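Dear colleagues,

For the upcoming journal club I promised to circulate an example of a predicted protein-ligand complex. I picked one with adenosine-5'-diphosphate because it came up in last month's discussion. The inputs are reproduced below in full, followed by the predicted structure.
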Amino acid sequence: MKILVLNCGSSSVKYQFMDIEKTYVLAKGMVSRIGMSGAMHAYKPHDRPEVTTTGEILDHIMAVEHVITMLLSPNHGVIKDKSEIDAVGHRVVHGGEAFPDSVLIDNDVMQVLRDCIELAPLHNPHNIRGITACFQLLPGIPQVAVFDTAFHLKMPPYAYIYGIPYVLYKRYGIRRYGFHGTSHFYVSRRAAKMMNRPIEELNIITCHLGNGASMSAVKGGISIDTSMGFTPLEGLLMGTRSGDLDPAIILHVMAREELSLNEANTMLNKHSGLQGISGISGDMRDIIKEADKGNTNSQLALDVYCYRIRKYIGSYAAVLGGLDALVFTAGIGENSPLVRKKCCENLDFLGIRVDDEKNNQAKGPQTDEIQTDDSKTKVFRVPTNEELVIALDTKRVVEEGMERKKMVKGV
Ligand code: ADP
């Protein structure tokens, strides 16, 4: 089965076209600057060099059209006909409480996705645009929504209810949802596989440290708590997002600086985090470089970043009632030995000991174990693969749909 995996953002479409039986990426790429000048499409077939094209790409329909054109191109393509695309899997950021699992998209599902826009106004509208584009351009080809929130929907109520009037949960769905679910799911399974033990008997903490960052406490394969909340703003310090803070600070700053709701939102999402503390950059590579040169605010940003992760490791070890494995993934988690080391400092009491040499050498596409031989808890560096999870889920949901159809016909 050949599956097109799409991740539609506000001005970009990232994609992978996979032969799922062979877990093989036939082609991948990204359309960027949609609706802006200098729109660009970088496309890489598996067996030929990358091709970059520029031109007018006004909306998501044109972007998806570009992708299909390249997949079919006589020179660069990997298929001869659209019908070779068996299904499309979409990353959808927010499924609210409606979708504890991936789902085949029909009109009813589209309506619920539209209802979820209020919960994720920055993400869901773009995901919906991508789905609409595929309905137009690939009619009759099944489409599946795979949600960032789904993996966390089994959290117990005491982990997802906030200490505000309960009626706000009932009225507006204000609760912890959590994000990066496909990544936490994937890397926790990889860790279990590496340990050669069933996930059902393991306590694992996963740290997804990219531009956005979140952690998850995974017990027996289920996410029982996670650091992002109602929105992706809560929890860890991130590139430009504040993460946890006293909610009264927002009210105080809005009053003192006479900020509008929009301005406060921008401050918390775009001008905070590593960027806010360092005043230099939200990119961890810059922060490490500047801290190395002796820049005190960059050093402080790095310290706050790692300290908060350590704090969450401690609290998640408590809610899990013990710890078998700690996993680092995403841009920073996969590529920064310094951050991994700092996050694991003084965690001997949890059985966590990092081997400096293994940690420094860990890189590349494979999973690495970076703990010392006498460390009771395993520490992994796992390159995440959200696209693979989306493709596998898409295959499962499409096949389940076909089975159901067969059964109905049989009846
Ligand atoms: P996104 O959330 O946008 O998918 P990524 O997972 O690609 O983000 O992570 C981006 C982050 O990873 C940036 O802060 C970047 O600086 C960081 N990063 C990438 N490579 C390194 C590295 N070698 N050392 C430290 N940080 C790195």
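Two points we might discuss: The pocket of adenosine-5'-diphosphate is lined by residues 210-212, 239, 283-285, 288, 330-332, 335-336 (CB under 6 Å). The first strand starts at residue 2 and ends at 8.

See you all on Thursday,
B. R.
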